[in-house]
Every structure is written in structure tokens, then in C-alpha cells.
Prior knowledge:
Blueprint (H helix, E strand, L loop, with lengths): L1 H19 L3 E6 L2 E6 L5 E6 L9 H5 L3 E4 L3 E5 L9 E7 L7 E7 L5 E2 L3
Antiparallel strand pairs: 1-2, 2-6, 3-5, 3-7, 4-5, 7-8
Amino acid sequence: MLSRFNALAVVLTTLISFSFSQDVTLTIDGSSLNYESTADIYGFQFNHDGCAQGASGGDAAANGFIISTSEGVVLGFSLTGSYISAGSGTLVDLGGECSTIDALIFAGDLGVQLTAE
């Protein structure tokens, strides 16, 4: 009986850990949008308050991503199936200092949605 309880406790703890974990964690350092990711990134999109109209470069550009920016949105994707490998670095240079970004959408392999914070 006790071993079944222990097994159930381990399963529940594992499920809870996965449900609260983030695939992609973002930080802003000056004009750099930095990331730490446990999954490969195949595309991304986020909103900004007008501060990132010149977003370019970073690991997104180094991996052949097309980076499109507008007054309120940055979009990054590849037409060749390229991706940003799991790890950490600078995702893009925002082209200006942003204090916040929101409405984060990140895609993994086969379009699987990644959780981002």
C-alpha cells in the first residue's frame, strides 16, 4: 500500500513540475532580448509598445530567420525549416530599449506551442 502511495506521489510531483515549467524564458537587457530555452525554437511573435520597430540580428538572424517588425509586433520565422537550438543567447536586438513585451507566441518542432515567460 505504501509503495503505491509513493508511486502516486512521484507521478503527481512530476506532472505538477511539467505543468509549471517554461520552455522559453525571456529577459531584456538594454536593447537585447535574451532567451533561455529547453526546446528548439522554430518561430516567435510578440507585441511591444513601439520600442522594437528596428528588431534584427541575434540568434534569429544567425539561423536564417526572417524578422518582421511593425509598430506593435515582432515576428520571426524561417522559410527553410531552420530553427534556434535549445540553449541561451540573444534572440534579437530590439533596436531600442523596451521595458516590457507581451502576447508571447513561440513555436517548436512541427508547430507545437512552447510556453514562454
